[in-house]
Amino acid sequence: MTGSTAVEDVIPDLSDPRTFVDAVPHDGFRRLRERDGLYWQPAKASPARGGYWAVTRFEDIVAIEQDPSAFTSTHGVSYPMIFPFPAPAPMCDNLMFTDPPRHAGLRRAAAAGFGPRVVANFDPWIREIVREVIADVESVTEFDYVDKFARTIPAYVIAKVLGCPREDRERIVDWTNRLFAAGMQTEDGMAAQIAAVQLVQEEIQAYCADMQERKRKEPADDMFTALAKIADAGDITQSEFLQWTLLILAAGFETTHTAIGQSMRMILENEDIRAATDRAVDEGISGKLANEFIRVISPAMQMARLATRDVEVAGTQVLQGDAVVLYFVSANRDGSVFAKPDTFNPWRTETATLAFGSGVHRCIGSYLAKLEVQILFEELRAAGIRLRLNGAPKRGWSNFINQITELPVARA
Ligand code: HEM
Fold this sequence. Notes:
Blueprint: H1 7-10, H2 26-34, E1 39-42, E2 51-55, H3 58-65, E3 71-72, H4 102-111, H5 116-120, H6 123-137, E4 142-144, H7 145-150, H8 152-162, H9 169-183, H10 190-217, H11 223-232, H12 238-269, H13 271-282, H14 286-297, E5 302-307, E6 311-313, E7 316-318, E8 323-327, H15 328-331, H16 366-382, E9 387-389, E10 394-395, E11 404-406, E12 408-411
Parallel strand pairs: 2-8
Antiparallel strand pairs: 1-2, 3-5, 4-12, 5-8, 6-7, 9-12, 10-11
Helix pairs in contact: 6-8, 6-16, 8-9, 8-12, 9-10, 9-12, 10-11, 10-12, 11-12, 12-13, 12-16, 14-16
Bound molecules: protoporphyrin IX containing FE.
Protoporphyrin IX containing FE (HEM) binds next to helix 12 and helix 16.
């Protein structure tokens, strides 16, 4: 490459959270998908060789996620939270940070509780929560949609799934908000970020241990009780119990928060998307509508793996210890998989996205998250709520989550 056509000139620095502050760099990702092989992204927080491989095409990500023996999760699952290999791995009692065969046993402890048939039964109480949240703004003319909807709905839903008493719901909202804020990358660097996250996690874990005690005495049909029983039977350790409950809280919040906030931003900024949303709800395809919003938003923009051995991907030689960062946000707009990938189209027939990942670590909460978004749009339509932008939306400071932190709205 010569002069101004060098790839570094047209591809933004994907390792820098500032690249994502205004918007996701979709043009840069498209250029990368059109190039052969993987793209070497120089990166400060790299665990090896001063950078990582950016993986931007759908089929390359699927191939990597299908091979956990070559690409481990034990050394971190998203950039910049990845640690050198083969040094010992941190936080290994968290499901996301495990590889097969250990991963399968640990995942079994709770995955069935989030399966499609179980989750379909959640419809009535999720609808009740959504109606309650809508009723809360019925007499208000101006508000922050992120604050009133994106923060509350996922937190209330997760609190109910776990079996937290109703009076604890605001504590869950507070913790999940603090986790969200702590997870934002700042110029203070990764050490500050890890310390802030740990502080909130300690409080949550103390609460989860208390709930475990309560559920032993008063068992109920909820996730705390189910996991506490599995821990008491010795099928998972106490530390695994705590990591599981923490994971459900954290993984279920930040991503769904993003899906709810960003989908409304898209509607408010684009009349065609608003019209398509109304029509999709009226035609009874709000499940597909939710799926399409989550595809174009891709709340978890990337996940990462570390190579356990030298391995070739898309003609690129990846060396042992190299990090590969899997850009779901790019793969979900891969033109070889999705027709007119940048167009919002709830009627599209290619519905298998990578927004929830793939392979053994595929998100266990996908049915739950989609149901929340689906119900929200059905209930907003039923209540006749029409909103308009009332100020500039604010994005977060993250190259991991496609964050929106403020969405000022008013009644249209
Ligand atoms: C729109 C909302 C959501 C999105 C976009 C999302 C996305 C993801 C992604 C990308 C992964 C990693 C998959 C991989 O590495 O291949 C993941 C894993 C996971 N998610 Fe979600 N998620 C969402 C909602 C939820 C909810 C509501 C829960 C609540 C239970 C949840 C629980 C989990 C868990 C436990 C894992 C780890 C699975 C494993 O490592 O085996 N997620 N999610």
